[in-house]
Amino acid sequence: MKFIRFLHNLLKTNNLKLYIKYMVSNRCKMAVKEELKKLGLHFIVVDLGEVEIMENISMDQREKLKLSLLNSGLELMDDKKAMLIEKIKNVIIEMVHHSTENIKVNFSDYLSEKLNHDYTYLSNLFSEVQGTTIEQFIISHKTERIKELIIYGELNITEIAWKMNYSSVAHLSSQFKKVTGLSPSHFKQMKDKRRNPIEEIGNVNANE
Description:
The protein is an alpha+beta fold. Helices cover 59% and strands 8% of the residues. The protein is built from eleven helices and four strands; from the N terminus they run H-E-H-E-E-H-E-H-H-H-H-H-H-H-H. It has helices at 2-10, 26-38, 59-71, 80-98, 107-115, 119-130, 134-152, 157-163, 169-180, 184-189, 204-207, and strands at residues 16-21, 43-47, 50-53, 75-76. A four-stranded antiparallel β-sheet has the order 2-3-1-4, with helices on both faces. A hairpin with a 2-residue loop joins strand 2 and strand 3.
């Protein structure tokens, strides 16, 4: 680990960041690592939506990586605005689905601090490109996470409301029903509890 940190610091000025769309799970991370290894590229960090490699990447390597990632349902990104949109999505996905902490009280401050951009700019860009608001995107993901927690059955609805930072069970139930058309208790009783793939949640085109 110390050796990796040493290399990281030594080569920091030459490190290159790549941004990858639809990279939303550990399975995706493993797929990306495999493709980088095949191309002889050495990664320092492989995170959701973001990869840091030690060397510059040639046009030929980039094209090969792009094609191999497409075969895995992933997409190497070039456009700066699209990259920022993907960063917004990944910060939200990380917090809602993968963090062991409770949901942040103020997502706008959290996003602004994490991405080093004014929230108004992030919000306007997201709405313009995605056709939906950051707030709606967050609600969609929180709803899907609530479904998951209900299915697990480890927490009751009061505990889920606290974990997901709702002011009350009534608030959670109201928002859940608005998105799904079902109350949490009705959803719990269903035999076929339908859930959506993370990469499709909050995507306007995927929901049409």
